[in-house]
């Protein structure tokens, strides 16, 4: 053995002795014991031991990785929470509903009109204004009554404002002040302040007034769209009784319109058609939107389901309640555009024939008599059997039937909340002449 080699062994032996004489740490003891065992038990054990170490290392690595991912996920969640806080309210993720308590549970619906918007067309008319009054006072469950009034042009002969409506709904019963005619123009005004004592039950906060020319399809469309009405109650007419207003009132403006612009059409036919077309368009748009955004709707959309399935009990009001006249309430009258009754029947038939997707109830009222027929009398509803021979149904004279307009307004409210009247033409009266 060379001298250099011997010195090397001595150095190594000294190093081993020094190493073994040190007080070992626990980890070191375990490690060294494993090494001893390794030597004594041979190579197989050596491999197992190696595996254990590897497994331990792998486990440690996996745990570290899992910790890291968990921390990363939590950081991302925190980031999302911060971003959501900065979003505008309507774009936030819907939160799961809070645990329902008796107080927060929605109230059961009180009627088909619960939380609905009703658009009354012809709302400044003699019947329309009373319908608005009745709905506001007797159906506070409604969300809104939208009174659609006719204003052709300011300061024109055809502009009637909505004085009758404001009177009927009680808007003028507030604490009022009227400036004397001889005072300065600033003081020559009338104002009515809300009177809590008398006006609270009038529910005027639920009344919205909109203006519309029914012979203009674009106006009809925007009124139906903007108002978001669930139901349209049609009380408009261009007749005073059975005579065109242009004739009965010798109204120059109406006569002028009839002569110069006959294509404008008739309120009972073209006007109604414009309104029905608008309702249909708006319903279809809503249906398309619902489909696009995956809301749960059936093929029939919101409207059809109420009437076409006659066996099913309707859970929502009709799309249209059409106010019309019983065939024998008034005599027929010839006009350049067809007879009075012919125009009324055309309007009635238009809904089922041309707009089958819209649900409806048509009320054929008896002749109105506001002075000699009492109010609050029992309402009679008689469904018209379309299959029966019209001559037969007319053979019993019905021209003795009458109804007060206030009761007619009550009948409108009753029909809107009666699912059994949906899809039907119904004659309505309260009294008969002796
Ligand atoms: N008379 C009867 O004995 C009798 C019986 C049964 C049923 N009915 C029917 O009951 C319904 C209501 O009758 P009513 O006596 O209340 O009629 P009304 O007082 O003459 O009311 C009709 C309303 O329709 C509005 N109107 C007319 N043309 C319009 C247009 N182009 N655009 C927008 N609005 C328009 C009128 O507004 P402006 O006045 O501001 O123009 C008026 O407010 C009618 O369908 C009628 O045929 C009548």
From TrEMBL:
Q: Transmembrane segments in this chain: where? A: none
* Protein known as: NAD dependent epimerase/dehydratase family protein
Task: Point to the regions of Low complexity compositional bias.
Answer: 52-64
Q: Which domain of life is it from?
A: Eukaryota
What organism is the protein native to?
Nitzschia inconspicua
From the UniProt annotation, give the residues forming the signal peptide. Answer: none
Q: Where is the composition biased (Basic and acidic residues)?
A: 83-93, 384-395
Positions of the region Disordered? 45-65, 83-116, 384-404
